[in-house]
Amino acid sequence: MSTVLCEAGHSQKKVKLKKNGILYELMKNKIIYLMMLPGILFFFIFAYIPMVGVIMAFKDYNIKKGIFGSSWNGLDNFKFFFSSGDAFRITFNTVFLNLLFLIFSTVISVALAIFLNGLTRKVFKKVTQSIMFLPYFVSWAIVGIITQGFFASENGAINSFLKSINMEPVNWNSSPELWPIILVLFYIWKWCGYNIVIYLATIAGFDTECFEAAAIDGASKFQQIRYITIPLLKPTIIILTLLQIGKIFYGDFGMFYSIIGDNGILYATTDVIDTYVYRALRLMSDFGMASAVGLYQSVMCFVMVFGSNLLVRKYQSDAALF
Amino acid sequence: MNRSKKLKNNKSNIVYNIVAYSSIILFSVFCLLPFWLMVAGAFTDESAIIQNGYQLFPKKFSLAAFDTIFAGNRVLNSYKVTVLVTIMGTTLAMILTSMMAYGLSLKTIKYRNQISFYVVFTMLFSGGLVPWYILITQYLKLQDTIWVLFVPYLINPWYMFLLRKFFTTIPESLIESAKIDGANDFYIFVKIALPLSLPALATIGLFYSLFFWNDWWLGLLFVNDRRLQPLQLLLRALVSNLSSEVQALNPNAKQGIIPPAYSVRMATSIITIGPIILFYPFVQKYFVKGLTVGAVKG
Q1: Which residues of chain A have a CB within 8 Å of the CB of B276?
Q2: Number of other CB atoms surrounding residue A289 within 10 Å
């Protein structure tokens, strides 16, 4: 900084030139830039360098030869993936399951947030809201164990209950059609409390005068919800929905892998892009195809996030990512 | 006319109350049920689980699962790994995140928008799992080290931008007057910006702690060494490869004695989730604050 100042004293022309320069800015705020440097390096190493690695999708990767030494094989990795029939299945599963999660969790969270907001018993409200938020803090690994606890065919709690009332136990492990429902249940369990927090905060910000006026005019509670609360909540619902839609090609690996695990019978309905890439990488060591599928997912995600963000910005610019 | 409407409304409001209360109570029970199963399963006698399956109201009480867990040192060791990773990860993450967030919150920094975009772009597009995996295993050679369990996640862009949002509420005049008094930027950051943002730092710190405590993805990908297995990965191992993993919990057990595998899973879950439940009443408000300020982000 001192050198810049010295030079500034010497000639006026030099100052004008320097003031717009990168170096001048970096020197002036060097401490701030130094403070940001570790972060900048972090993103460079762990986010930008792997972006170069997408070329692996077009290569026949060989560990010994490395990324740059391996030979190109054009679109073979993609052809293999798209012709296998897996592409449609895992894309469909990812999008379909995410849509189910989105619809059910939104409806339930909004309804419960409205109900919770109307409660007059403060302690009851606090306790129930805390209970609903609690599952957010539970790891997927534990959810995996809970899944086994309830839905194991051999000794799961549901089957032991069915047996105790002399009903036929369900063979969960070989019934792929049942698992989307189970996944939705666990998704609701884990995320509704989180959404409720956001919706409750939004409702708490509403002007109570509206509701008082409506009550005086004789509107019932259901009518108040229908004609006041829901219309006022609409922007928040739309934005949360758009953000979720932005992530629609992204399957939460932790969730799917801990609930479904390596049970191949269930893949028909529950295999998503992320679990597929993981298996291609770790179990089959098919680096080329795994990175091709990864690139396919990244591109789809990019399009969706970009598109949904444009829409979010239209509705509420400060909620937009950029 | 008015009166009949009021009556009708009263009736409708009674219906509303019934619907509201019953759905809140039902959903709360739904949320608590898995926790209850965990506790019930952990304290059930193993032979009862094998015979009747897990039950919400077990008939035979037993502490054998906890005896097994504490007989060997594997769970204890995993506990140490998780605690260490959570502390080191959160500390380092907070340092990196807050320094970057502070810089980006200052209007006097000319390139703050460019740097913000540099970060935002990583949220939009990623190279995918495989190049990242190869970078960490082949080039950085981090697999089977303690570092791999937190270094790849040191800055979460969402949390960084959330913290930046908090920092922007610090009045500019405060920073300016400190500068006039001769304080340098780092001094202002440490002595003014951080102390003014303590609740925000607590919020972000708790988000990071929860994240590192619960993460098993890094362990799953990069850790094969049992001594470096965090709790979450141990849980995973207990599910997927039951008997041999449970045997390994207590190598001193006599041959031929069947370890209580099913109740051990539940008992280990309880131990894993224990600290979270313990702190929950005190930290809940910080999480709520983080969610509502970050509004819809995250």
Answers
A1: 137-138
A2: 24
Over residues B129-186, the pLDDT tens digits come to: 999 999 999 999 999 999 999 999 999 999 999 999 999 999 989 999 999 998 999 9
Residue A10 C-alpha, separation from nearest chain B C-alpha, in angstroms: 24
Residue spans in chain A of domains classed CATH 1.10.3720.10: 77-319
Same domain, B42 and B149: no
- How sure is the predictor about B205, in pLDDT bands with cuts at 50, 70 and 90? very high
What are the distances in angstroms from CA B295 to CA A136, A314, B202?
Answer: 16, 17, 17
> A35 and B120: CB-CB below 8 Å?
no
pLDDT band at residue A4 under the 50/70/90 scheme = very low
Question: Which CATH code fits A77-319?
Answer: 1.10.3720.10
> Is B229 part of a structural domain of the chain?
yes
B83 domain residue, yes or no: yes
- Are B123 and B46 within one domain? no
Q: Closest Cα to residue B188, out of B174, B201, B198? A: B174
The alpha-carbon gap from A177 to the nearest alpha carbon of chain B, in Å, equals 22
Task: Give B-chain residues touching A191 at CB under 8 angstroms.
Answer: none
Contacts of B295 in chain A (CB under 8 A): 198, 319
Q: Are residues B203 and B118 in the same domain?
A: yes
Chain B residues inside the 8 Å CB shell of A47: 122, 126-127
Give the nearest chain B residue to A319 (CA atoms).
B296
Say how far apart CA A6 and CA B18 lie, in whole Å. 78
Q: What residues in B contact A287, CB-CB < 8 Å? A: 130, 134
Same domain? For B36 and B95 the reply is: no
Structure tokens at B65: 């699962």
Mean pLDDT of A285-290: 88
Residue to substitute from A46, A256, A289, A322, interface B, most B β-carbons within 10 A: A46
Looking at the structure, do residues B11 and B149 belong to the same domain, yes or no? no
**Burial status of residue A134 (CB atoms within 10 A of its CB: 0-12, 13-18, 19 or more):** buried
Cβ–Cβ under 8 Å, residues A25 and A4:
no
Spell out the long-range contacts of B59-63 with Cβ–Cβ below 8 A and sequence spacing 24 or more: B62/B260, B62/B263
CB contact under 8 A, A189 and B154: no
- Average predicted confidence (pLDDT) for chain A: 88
The partner residue sitting opposite B262, judged by closest CB among A130, A155, A287, is: A155
CB contact under 8 A, B265 and A148: yes
Amino acid at B87: I
Is A35 close to B117, i.e. CB distance below 8 A? no
Is residue B136 located within the same domain as residue B181? yes
Q: Are B233 and B223 in contact (CB under 8 A)?
A: yes
Tokens of A69: 């030494």
Residue B288 within any structural domain of the chain: no
Residue B41 CA from chain centroid, whole number? 24
- Nearest chain A residue (CA) to B237: A141
Q: Name the residue range of residue B198's domain.
A: 73-240
Overall number of domains in chain B: 2
| Same domain (yes/no): B17, B100 | no
Is residue B249 in a domain? no
Residues B83 and B219 grouped into a single domain: yes
pTM, two decimals, is 0.90
CATH number at residue B153: 1.10.3720.10
